[in-house]
């Protein structure tokens, strides 16, 4: 299993001999509704779009997970798996092989890979987006991804999961509360899934930020404070802090049956 963190929520996951592009934002700036005054993020270093992608996996239909400019640059023939809102977006962009997954549904590449949609983050009063469990059917290894730290208790039935990709800090807004759940939420998912490793997502990386929203966002917690919380709860899960755009192998220990 190889992973490359592409900044923010974007990842290249190499599992089951497949290259999966997860929630890609790879070109241009990131804004919500083109409102640069409210929030804007830009890359500090120009990057080349990864090649030979077998699958695009989208957890949400919002711009920071299904980035329109990036999706317009990618080959429309690449298969896409996504939440219903993300699937609707890519169909409108002209993608030809699109699978919408509702919670509990599974996309599979026979004998190689299984992708299960689980309940993810709320993006409205009635909309719950997707988290995913990716399982290598040959190696028996698995990854769980939820980009805002909203973990549903029902994922316990799929434990153990070797690698968890989730926020590790809390991000809060006045009056709204916690919009990204990190510290205690990461401990909870570690208790449920017993992963060997946790990797942070939703962090900055090689990016710059501007806009009105930044005046109110408050980040709490660090990787070190999370390590202390894991140890205090007798959890052996380790934290890997990847560097942006550096491919690395996740070396998993074989667990005796």
From TrEMBL:
Pfam families given in the database record: Lactamase_B_3
InterPro entries xrefs: RibonucZ/Hydroxyglut_hydro
Entry-linked PANTHER family: METALLO-HYDROLASE/OXIDOREDUCTASE SUPERFAMILY PROTEIN, METALLO-HYDROLASE_OXIDOREDUCTASE SUPERFAMILY PROTEIN
Name the UniProt record assigns to this protein: MBL fold metallo-hydrolase
Species this protein is from: Pseudanabaena yagii GIHE-NHR1
């Amino acid at each position: 299993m190889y992973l490359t963190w592409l900044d923010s929520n974007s990842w290249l996951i190499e599992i089951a001999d497949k290259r999966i592009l997860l929630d890609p934002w790879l070109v241009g700036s990131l804004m919500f509704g083109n409102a640069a005054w409210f929030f804007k993020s830009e890359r500090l270093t120009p990057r080349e779009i990864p090649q030979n992608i077998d699958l695009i996996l989208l957890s949400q239909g919002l711009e920071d997970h299904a980035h329109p400019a990036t999706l317009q640059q990618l080959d429309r023939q690449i298969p896409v798996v996504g939440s219903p809102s993300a699937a609707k977006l890519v169909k409108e962009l002209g993608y030809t092989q699109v699978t919408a997954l509702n919670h509990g549904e599974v996309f599979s590449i026979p004998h190689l890979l299984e992708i299960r949609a689980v309940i993810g983050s709320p993006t409205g009063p009635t909309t719950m987006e997707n988290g995913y469990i990716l399982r290598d059917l040959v190696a028996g290894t698995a990854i769980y991804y939820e980009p805002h730290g909203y973990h549903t208790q029902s994922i316990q039935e799929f434990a153990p999961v070797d690698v968890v990709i989730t926020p590790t800090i809390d991000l809060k807004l006045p009056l709204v509360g916690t919009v990204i759940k990190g510290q205690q939420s990461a401990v909870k998912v570690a208790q449920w899934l017993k992963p060997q490793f946790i990797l942070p997502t939703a962090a900055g990386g090689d990016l710059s930020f501007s806009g009105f929203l930044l005046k109110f966002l408050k980040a709490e917690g660090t990787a070190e404070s999370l390590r202390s919380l894991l140890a205090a709860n007798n959890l052996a899960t380790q934290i890997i802090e990847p560097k942006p755009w550096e491919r690395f192998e996740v070396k998993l220990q074989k667990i005796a049956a």
